[in-house]
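Lab channel / #folding
Pinned by the channel admin:
"Please post every new chain as: sequence first, then the structure tokens as a reply. Keep commentary short and put observations after the output so the thread stays searchable."

First post following the new format, from NK:
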Amino acid sequence: MKRIIAATVVLASLTGPGFAQQQQQQKDDDPAVMEQKQKKLEAEAVDKRYKSTLDKTRQDTTATRVDPWSNIRGADDSKTKR
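Reply from TO:
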């Protein structure tokens, strides 16, 4: 009789995690959980586009050099003529 009870307890403890996984899958089918996952995916996509836009603008600004005094200075601005 002790062996049967011990075997039943061991089998029950081994099958417990299996039932827990089935319950988790049912929770994932909840519309609220699916909505949260969708919002998370959308937020990640927006963040990825934002970062790619920042990278593009950083590359563009470093390539162009602007001289704000170019129209004020003369063509030849050497110190020897002064």
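NK: The chain has a mean pLDDT of 77.
TO: also worth noting, Helices lie at 2-28, 31-63.
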